[in-house]
């Protein structure tokens, strides 16, 4: 929320804004107006459209080079950014596959248009892809890493693109990044298919944030985009509404794999942060 604005600023005192660079958790932050993104309100769903929605939208367009009729695989599809990747790929005219870890998440994925949700704890992802998609997958939106990464590389189609947006398997490791097992064979696997592995980091595309955010907000307001938030109702500690004190509980809840959509931590004064 803007508490003071310069005479040449485009913002007004009391206006809700978002800031996603260094120091975003500060109680107060002095910043140039160019670094602030105007929000329609402090509604949690609008905040979720920021980091998670922008990552999916910009990544699929700029790095994924998505084309109508392609087959797209989204890993961790019921998560904060996966939910948007599923919906945006479907709206682009693609066939969408999504991985998840529970039957409840399977139902959620179907509700947002996922053509083939896969509970990887009950089905072997590699076998499903090999059997049901023998020509391979055109685009993979990958955020898990480790064995999931290897499986996705193996199932790429000719000229397929695998986009790394994260590697949650490495985040949880006490010893650092969990290496991919098939790293030594990666070059020939890519070469023989003219395939590619690409990385995406949202902070490298700041010039597109406002344009894409306005587009996502319009879609959400029109009912064309679901922005699922998880406030921790199903966690063992209850709703995350104690501000910074709730963040450790929210992170632990994220690692349980039970969350659905984007986890939101609410502050006592009513502000929301991711």
TrEMBL record:
<dbReference type="InterPro" id="IPR051397">
    <property type="entry name" value="Zn-ADH-like_protein"/>
</dbReference>
<feature type="domain" description="Enoyl reductase (ER)">
    <location>
        <begin position="1"/>
        <end position="265"/>
    </location>
</feature>
<dbReference type="InterPro" id="IPR020843">
    <property type="entry name" value="ER"/>
</dbReference>
<dbReference type="GO" id="GO:0047522">
    <property type="term" value="F:15-oxoprostaglandin 13-reductase [NAD(P)+] activity"/>
</dbReference>
<dbReference type="InterPro" id="IPR036291">
    <property type="entry name" value="NAD(P)-bd_dom_sf"/>
</dbReference>
<dbReference type="InterPro" id="IPR011032">
    <property type="entry name" value="GroES-like_sf"/>
</dbReference>
<keyword id="KW-0560">Oxidoreductase</keyword>
<protein>
    <recommendedName>
        <fullName>15-oxoprostaglandin 13-reductase</fullName>
        <ecNumber>1.3.1.48</ecNumber>
    </recommendedName>
</protein>
<dbReference type="InterPro" id="IPR013149">
    <property type="entry name" value="ADH-like_C"/>
</dbReference>
<dbReference type="InterPro" id="IPR002364">
    <property type="entry name" value="Quin_OxRdtase/zeta-crystal_CS"/>
</dbReference>
<dbReference type="GO" id="GO:0008270">
    <property type="term" value="F:zinc ion binding"/>
</dbReference>
<dbReference type="Pfam" id="PF00107">
    <property type="entry name" value="ADH_zinc_N"/>
</dbReference>
């Amino acid at each position: 929320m803007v508490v003071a604005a310069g005479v040449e600023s485009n913002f007004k005192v009391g206006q809700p804004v978002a800031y996603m660079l260094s120091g975003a958790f500060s109680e107060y932050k002095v910043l140039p107006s160019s670094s602030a993104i105007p929000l329609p309100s402090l509604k949690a769903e609008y905040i979720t459209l920021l980091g998670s929605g922008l990552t999916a939208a910009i990544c699929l367009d700029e790095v994924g080079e998505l084309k109508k009729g392609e087959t797209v695989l989204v890993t961790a599809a019921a998560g904060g950014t996966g939910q948007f990747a599923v919906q945006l790929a479907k709206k682009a005219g693609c066939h969408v596959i999504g991985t998840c870890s529970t039957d409840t998440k399977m139902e959620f994925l179907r509700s947002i248009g996922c053509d083939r949700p896969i509970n990887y704890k009950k089905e072997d992802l590699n076998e499903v892809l090999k059997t049901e998609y023998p020509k391979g997958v055109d685009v993979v939106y990958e955020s898990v890493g480790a064995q999931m990464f290897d499986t996705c590389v193996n199932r790429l189609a000719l000229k397929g693109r695998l986009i790394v947006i994260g590697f949650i398997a490495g985040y949880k490791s006490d010893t650092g990044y969990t290496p991919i097992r098939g790293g030594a064979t990666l070059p020939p696997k890519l070469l023989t298919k003219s395939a590619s592995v690409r990385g995406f980091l949202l902070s490298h595309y700041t010039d597109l944030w406002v344009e894409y955010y306005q587009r996502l907000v319009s879609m959400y307001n029109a009912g064309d985009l679901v922005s699922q938030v998880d406030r921790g109702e199903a966690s063992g500690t209850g709703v995350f509404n104690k501000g910074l004190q709730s963040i450790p509980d929210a992170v632990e809840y994220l690692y349980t794999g039970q969350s659905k959509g984007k986890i939101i931590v609410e502050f006592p004064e009513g502000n929301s942060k991711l």
